[in-house]
Amino acid sequence: MAKYLLRVSYTTDGVKGILKEGGSARVEAAGKAAASLGGSFDAFYFTFGDDDAIVIADFPDHVTAAALSLAVGASGAVRVSTTPLITPEEMDAAVKLHPDYRPPGA
After folding, report:
1. HSE on the CB side for 72, CA within 13 Å?
2. For residues 60 and 97, what is the distance between their CA atoms, to the nearest angstrom?
């Protein structure tokens, strides 16, 4: 499973839903949506500031993570930014690869 950071911002309608249902109900509904695609949440926290919630999630692949992000965004109640997370071991493997790259203007 691949890990992702989901940064969630509620629209006015989304905030109204939180006020009506509460935070636990929203976490449960989001968890069910992730599970319907074979994913799960490691953590779900509500926050202050630019983001209203931060989620660490597991999904089988990028396509699955994108499917959830698209469905959530299409609701109009939530904006979500999905960032793939790279493990230290994956980074170790990446630094061993040496692409043939030329910087602009070089």
Report:
1. 26
2. 24
What is the average pLDDT across 91-102?
95
Topology classification of domain 2-95: Alpha-Beta Plaits (3.30.70)
How distant, in Å, are the alpha carbons of 25, 26, 50 from that of 20? Answer: 10, 10, 22
Domain boundaries, the chain: 2-95
Token pair for 10? 């509620």
At residue 6, φ and ψ (nearest 5 deg) are -110, 120
pLDDT tens readout for residues 53-70 = 999 999 999 999 999 999
Summarised one tens digit per residue, pLDDT across range 27-42 is: 999 999 999 999 999 9
pTM tops 0.90: no
* CA distances, 46 to each of 10, 20, 37, 49 (Å): 11, 16, 23, 10
